[in-house]
Write a structure and sequence with these properties.
By secondary structure, this protein is an all-alpha fold. The protein has a domain of 66 residues. It is built from 5 helices and no strands. The termini are far apart.
């Protein structure tokens, strides 16, 4: 089957496929725990990290191992253009989620961390 994307996007596609596998399991688990009677946020309401955001939970589980080294949170914050404290809010406390642009930057960063053939310098 012919690939419909540029070959340089291969590492990102591999990461997204991993996110998909993890997400399917998390969605199954989350659907059992969500109270169906609870009212959802209205249109345009802000999502917060919870059982209702299984894709974000999958991204968190894939990023956390890369944030164990000293200074890795600060380097990620610099790359995303946010304050270091926001990284803690995203991944430790899970009280916030980044916007769409920063999420895409995060996925690109994650693909560089997991791709051994990446030409860019890997951060600790």
């Amino acid at each position: 089957m012919k690939k419909l994307y540029h070959p340089s996007l291969e590492p990102l596609v591999a990461v997204l496929q991993g996110v998909e596998v993890v997400t399917r399991e998390m969605v199954r688990e989350a659907s059992r725990r969500i109270d169906k009677r609870r009212a959802r946020a209205g249109r345009g309401g802000t999502l917060r990290p919870s059982a209702e955001t299984p894709l974000w939970n999958a991204v968190i589980s894939m990023v956390r191992p890369h944030l164990q080294n000293r200074g890795s949170r600060a380097l990620l914050a610099r790359e995303l253009g946010v304050h270091r404290a926001r990284i803690g809010e995203f991944f430790s406390r899970q009280s916030a989620m980044p916007d769409a642009e920063r999420t895409l930057l995060l996925l690109l960063w994650l693909s560089r961390q997991t791709d051994p053939t990446s030409t860019q310098r890997r951060q600790p």
